[in-house]
Structure formats: C-alpha cells, structure tokens
Design brief:
The protein has 492 residues and is of the alpha/beta class. The protein is built from 15 helices and 18 strands. The protein has a six-stranded mixed beta sheet with strand order 4-9-8-7-5-6, sandwiched between helices. Strands 11-18-17-14-15 form a five-stranded mixed beta sheet, with no helix packed on it. A three-stranded parallel beta sheet has the order 1-2-3. A hairpin with a 4-residue loop joins strand 17 and strand 18. Helix 11 packs across helix 15. The two termini are 50 Å apart. The model has no long low-confidence stretch (mean pLDDT 92).
Length: 492
C-alpha cells in the first residue's frame, strides 16, 4: 500500500491512490492491510516513504514539506504503524525532503532519511528498497547508474527499477568497482545481502521458482476480481450533497423519467438503474474524454431533448476544465431537471459542482474498467447500498414507563462512505451526508437489553425498571451483509 498522505499544498491535484488526509486513519488502514497480508503468508512492502510524494507539480518532483518536529505524528505515522505491524520491507521514494535532510537529495539517496530516520529513529530493521532509479526525479540529477551507487552509500539494501536494461548491469559493475577502490565497504554490501537472504529464508523463497510473467499478464486481463472490487467500492461510495432529499431515486414521478449521461461509465450505470427504475434513457458525452472538457455543442445536444425529464444523473471526472461541467448543471436546471452528479476519481472539482441537487463521489480511476464501481453507485442511488451504524459516545436517556420510539433514521447511515481528503469547506476529510436508510435495510432487528426484541425500521418499547441497558441493533442490507451496533440506554 502507498502510505503517503494526500497532498497538502494549495493548487496540487491529488490522487485516489492514498488513504486520504487523516494520518490516524491512514495509519490504521495501512497497519490493518499489513497485518492481514502477513497473516496470509505474503511479504508486504509499504511504499512512498517518507511521504509527500503527492505534493508535485506538472514539471517538478514531489516534496515533503511537513516541519521536522511534526513529522513522526503526521506523515510518518502510517509508516511507523506499518513497521510496528511487522512490515519486513520498505520502499523509499524519490521525494525531495528539505525538512528532513540538509542536502537537497531525494529521499532514496539520503543518508539522513534511510540511516537516520528510518533505521535510527523509527527502528526499522527490515529490508530497505530505494527507487526507482530510472525515474525522471532521479535522472534529472544523476545517471541511473550513479544514483544506484549513491543509494547504496546512503543505506539501501536493494535497488528498484522501473524497467530492465543495460543500466542495471552498469550499476552492478560500478558498485563492484566502488568496493574494489574502497569507496563502499564490502561489509556494508554483506549486511544488505544478509538481510535479503534472511527474509527469503524465513519465507521459504530461496528455492522458489521465479514467476511466469506471461501467466501474470494473462491473469491481469481477466475480470476475476470483479466481485472483490465491487465489495470494496460499495462501502466507499460517498454522498456529499442531497438537497431536498433527491436521493434515493424512486420509481415515482419524483425521480422518473430519468436520464443518464456523462463522460465515463454511462452504459454500465444505465444497465444498473434500468433494472429498478422506468423509464430511463442514456446519452453519453462522447468527446469529453478526448478533449478534456465538455463542449457547448454537447450541452446543447443533451439539453435539447429533456422535455418531461425529472432527473439527470451525470457521471463526471476530475477534468482540467470544469466550466463545461458547471454549465451543464445550470442548463439542466434551466430546463427544470434535477441534477445528480456522480464524480469519479480524485474529487478535485467537488466545490465547483455544489449547484447540483445531489453529489455522489466514487473513487475509481476513470481510465480503468469501472463496471464494479457503477454497480455500487447504482445501488447507492436507489437506496440499496450498505449501511453504517453511527457511534454514539454518550448514554441515551429514556423515561421508565414511557413508550419510546426507536428509529434507524437517527442512527443508521447509507451509503457508509466518507470523504478521505479535504477539498474545501464543507467538503473536508470525514464529511458525508445521509440518505433515508429505510430502503437500504432489508431486515432490522432490535434487542432492548431487557429480554424484549422487535423488528422493523421503527420500533416502540417501554422500559419498566430503572437501570442501564445495552440496546443492540442489527441491520441486514440487500446484499445480505449484516451490520451491528450497540448503544447504552439509561432508564430513569
């Protein structure tokens, strides 16, 4: 997993390949993944150390800008927790580290980062991997061959390359020459080799055959992991706007006729929605993915045929130009159509789209097959996604002898996703808004803690005796997933 945090530099576009802006959550997620992979006999190599890789411009490398006194509890926290969870390898990136080292060298060539911070302060005794040495961040400063030697001198055990080639053998020859001339101690090479061999020995890899790359490539082409991707996607879908209760979409005149349009995943989303709603039409925006923007002629084409349409679901991406997206929302509104935006990828343009009636965020890369994402989004739009039971940290007071109504609308959230990054107020990390959870709950069971039980989205109960009770709630969604929670009830 990439354990660097989402970028914190104004104007820098982020990526979906992080665990977000919150160090505590990124640390928990990274540690959990590390532990589970280790439990299943797999080697784990967290990447992106020491962080800051997302803070990059179009023509400049990433830079870690967190002040040194705050590093360990911020950008360093996910890596520290991964180390404590037993990660046996660590990939040191080519990020510039002006706050961690006096020299302006990338982290992968920095003694201060690898020997001082990673091994010394953070206590990592596993295998350190540095690179890639043939990336633009390195080659603008050194040849890949020279960089490999500098990385070994700085404290790495292994060198990572983007691609094979003569530079790899040249690096080997240069390091051998440096050992012969006394520039590199042979004992340091032996230490690195010992760490690698010990790791292989402990995982029975010394005699393990190398993988067949042809078989790996063939496997990658198969949609074998669709179900796993779908299960992840359905729990990450996030609603960040739902004005007037536009969502969930229903098979009534409040939502339909419905149109699906956008720049990606339109057909896949249309296939999901038309199984539940009628009538539904689709009209993709064909040119946007090539032009990087939505042109006026596409907006005219879409809005010329929306007479009688109640709702338009527009699938948008993190385009460089957001003006066409804003114009599309306004033109649909001018025609009396409510607009639901499904925003794919890094939600960089989120604040610009706030005029839409509802905004749903999904985090898949729009350049990849997004069928699993659209299945999850479609279910969320109609209110049949998974649920999250809220955590309540205080006691819930009730009056003895008085009938109390318990309603999942107050304590169940659907869909369960929350923004992992801060974009703009109010769209900050952890933000989300709820939909009516009743359509998502196929089965609801209440355990009032006094021997009495009930079923249904709403339940009425009277506590007969003063005291403290544990209220249990179990919700089964339409996929069959069961979510449970407990609450402390004080009857007075």
């Amino acid at each position: 997993p990439r354990l660097e945090l989402a970028p914190d530099v104004e104007g820098v576009r982020g990526t979906v390949y992080t665990f977000g802006s919150d160090p505590a959550f990124a640390a928990k997620a990274g540690a959990t993944i590390t532990e589970v992979l280790i439990e299943n006999g797999l080697l784990v190599m967290p990447t992106g150390f020491p962080g800051g890789g997302g803070n990059r411009g179009p023509k400049r490398p990433g830079a870690l800008l967190t002040p040194r006194p705050h590093y360990i509890e911020r950008d360093g926290l996910p890596f520290r927790k991964a180390i404590e969870s037993g990660a046996p390898l660590m990939l040191v990136s080519n990020t510039l580290v002006p706050t961690l080292a006096k020299a302006s060298a990338p982290a992968s060539l920095s003694t201060s980062v690898m020997r001082g911070l990673l091994r010394g302060e953070m206590g990592f005794d596993g295998v350190v991997v540095a690179g890639p040495m043939d990336s633009p961040e390195i080659t603008r400063l050194h040849t890949p061959t020279d960089a490999a030697l500098l990385a070994f001198e700085a404290g790495t055990d292994m060198i990572f390359w983007n691609a094979p080639g003569p530079h790899v053998m040249k690096a080997v020859e240069l390091i051998v020459l440096a050992v012969n001339k006394g520039r590199v101690k042979e004992a340091d090479i032996d230490k690195a080799l010992t760490r690698v061999l010990e790791l292989k020995r402990s995982h029975n890899l010394l005699e393990h055959p190398m993988p067949d790359t042809r078989k790996a490539a063939a496997l990658e082409k198969k949609r074998k992991n669709f179900d796993d991707a779908y299960l992840i996607e359905r729990r990450s879908v996030t609603v960040v706007s739902n004005r007037g209760g536009v969502l969930p979409l229903t098979n009534t005149t409040a939502s339909v006729p419905l149109g699906v349009t956008g720049v990606a995943g339109v057909e896949e989303l249309y296939d999901v929605l038309r199984k539940h709603l009628k009538p539904v039409a689709q009209q993709p925006i064909m040119t946007a993915s090539h032009l990087g923007r939505i042109e006026d002629f596409e907006i005219y084409r879409l809005t010329s045929h929306v007479e009688g349409m109640k709702t338009a679901v527009c699938v948008l991406t993190d385009m460089r130009s957001v003006e066409g997206q804003v114009t599309l929302i306004r033109e649909l509104h001018a025609k009396g159509v409510r607009v639901v935006i499904v925003l794919l990828g890094y939600p960089h343009n989120l604040a610009h789209l706030r005029e839409a009636d509802a905004i749903v965020v999904a985090y898949c890369d729009d350049s990849t097959d997004c069928a699993a994402t659209m299945k999850a989004v479609g279910e969320a739009l109609i209110g049949q996604g998974p649920v999250r039971i809220l955590e309540v940290e205080r006691d819930l007071p009730v009056t003895v002898g008085k009938a109390e109504t318990f309603d999942i609308a107050n304590i169940v959230w659907t869909p369960p996703g929350r923004l992992p990054v801060t974009i703009d107020e109010p769209f900050v990390a952890g933000y989300a808004v709820p939909m009516n959870p009743a359509p998502a709950a196929k089965k609801v069971e209440w355990d009032f803690g006094d021997g009495k039980r009930a079923k249904g989205a709403q339940a009425e109960h009277t506590y007969a005796t003063p005291g403290r009770y544990t209220l249990g709630l179990t919700v089964t969604d339409h996929h069959g997933d069961v979510t449970s929670g407990t609450f402390s009830i004080v009857a007075e």
